[in-house]
Amino acid sequence: MAKITVIGQGDCEFNGQFSMLEALDESGFDMPYSCRGGNCGACTVKLVAGEVEEIQDPAYEPGEGEILTCSVIPVGDVTIELL
After folding, report:
1. Per residue in 55-76, pLDDT tens?
2. Alpha carbon distance 83, 66 (integer Å)
3. Whole-model pTM?
């Protein structure tokens, strides 16, 4: 199981949910999102540490060092920061 740490908010386990956003949402984190499909960029966060795997090809292109939590799953333990 991978651990997702949100700087300043805590952490949760990734238990095979569809996406990182779903895992965070199920764990009670107040994460920004709108479409859940990679189209709007509202769920963009900074990937501080760790590695993720893209599970869908998003229409929105995040900036350097940023990820869309709705479009990735963690490969191992990750640390993210809200923008």
Report:
1. 999 999 999 999 999 999 999 9
2. 9
3. 0.95
DSSP string covering 16-48: S-SSHHHHHHHTT-----SSSSSSS-TTEEEEE
In angstroms, the Cα distances linking 78 to 34, 35, 39, 40, 75 are 22, 23, 23, 23, 8
Burial (CB < 10 A; 0-12, 13-18, 19+), residue 45, is buried
Using an 8 Å Cβ cutoff, are 72 and 55 in contact? yes
Phi, psi (deg, nearest 5) at residue 67: -135, 160
